[in-house]
Write a structure and sequence with these properties.
The protein has eight helices and eleven strands. The protein has helices at 9-16, 64-72, 111-121, 126-139, 155-167, 185-202, 213-219, 253-269, and strands at 3-5, 20-33, 36-49, 53-57, 79-84, 87-88, 96-99, 173-177, 205-209, 222-226, 233-238. Helix 3 packs across helix 4 (126-139) and helix 7 packs across helix 8 (253-269).
């Protein structure tokens, strides 16, 4: 049964009053396999409000990445209704930016040129794109590294370049699929803080797919917990921790309570995929 928790009704109600940017109503996904149809997602319904940071956690294979690809328009839904800013999503969306687990940077292009690849692909005005790219580089803490090549950057810096590239065309929504999964624990924590800062400055709506429960709690306004495959939304948690959040919040009793409660869902299902 779907569960929802929140600590302070006033804060939760204020968030609920914001404009719904992404809406899913009984969305399902069925793949046609060699042995017949395979259901990846049971009917899924939820909203993401403008400017909200929402994370999705769940066991491997539950359909988290499939859900993100549906929102991006990279996969068609099988049934239900899925809209972005009130318009049905049919095909790849121009108003989203996507960050994958790997930075996917071109080795022969420097930081600035890797970011501007987005402008080239979208036929943007290059002069304006260059100005915006420099603004994003400064926001991401990469000033002075514009001419560096990917091999000269740390893994965390490469992912910051990837985030800048995804934001270059000023999308309403930033979709992130395990963007820090390949990083070591200390770098990952640092990048969580950097992503929070970038999100607060850019004021984008973010949907993050992650296996890490602490990461989801640290970054999110809400955490959606998915069941095992075929995936469904098992619970929704409002994360009522003050912002900006320092890494010290991870040592607080409130943070521990959130992570313990969410982790309990996976133990109840007999699986746990968390790091």
């Amino acid at each position: 049964m779907l569960q929802r928790t929140h600590l302070h009704a006033v804060a939760s109600e204020a968030r609920h009053a914001e404009r719904k940017l992404i809406e899913l109503r009984d969305v399902t996904k069925i793949y046609q396999g060699a042995d017949g149809p395979v259901q990846s997602l049971l009917p899924v319904s939820f909203d993401i409000r403008e400017g909200e940071f929402v994370s999705v956690v769940g066991p491997s294979g539950c359909g988290k990445s499939t859900l993100l690809k549906l929102v991006a328009g990279l996969l068609p839904i099988s049934a239900g209704e899925l809209t972005l800013d009130g318009t049905p999503i049919r095909g790849p969306q121009t108003n989203v930016g996507i960050v994958f687990q790997g930075a996917v940077l071109l080795a022969w292009r420097n930081v600035l040129d890797n970011i501007l690849l987005q402008a080239e692909m979208r036929n943007m005005d290059m002069k304006a794109a260059r100005v915006r790219a420099m603004t994003l580089i400064e926001m991401a803490g990469l000033k002075g590294f514009e001419k560096k090549y990917p091999w000269q950057l740390s893994g965390g810096m490469q992912q910051r370049v990837s985030i800048c590239r995804a934001l270059l065309h000023d999308p309403s929504v930033l979709l992130m699929d395990e963007p820090f999964g390949a990083l070591d624990a200390m770098t990952r924590e640092k990048m969580n803080g950097e992503l929070q800062r970038i999100w607060m400055e850019s004021k984008k709506t973010v949907l993050l797919i992650t296996h890490s429960i602490p990461e989801a709690v640290f970054l999110s306004d809400r955490v959606l917990v998915m069941s095992e495959r075929p995936g469904s939304i098992a619970a929704v948690y409002d994360i009522d921790l003050p912002r900006p959040r320092s890494l010290n919040v991870m040592a607080s009793p409130e943070f521990a309570r959130y992570t313990r409660t969410i982790r309990g869902h996976f133990y109840a299902q007999g699986s746990l995929d968390d790091h």
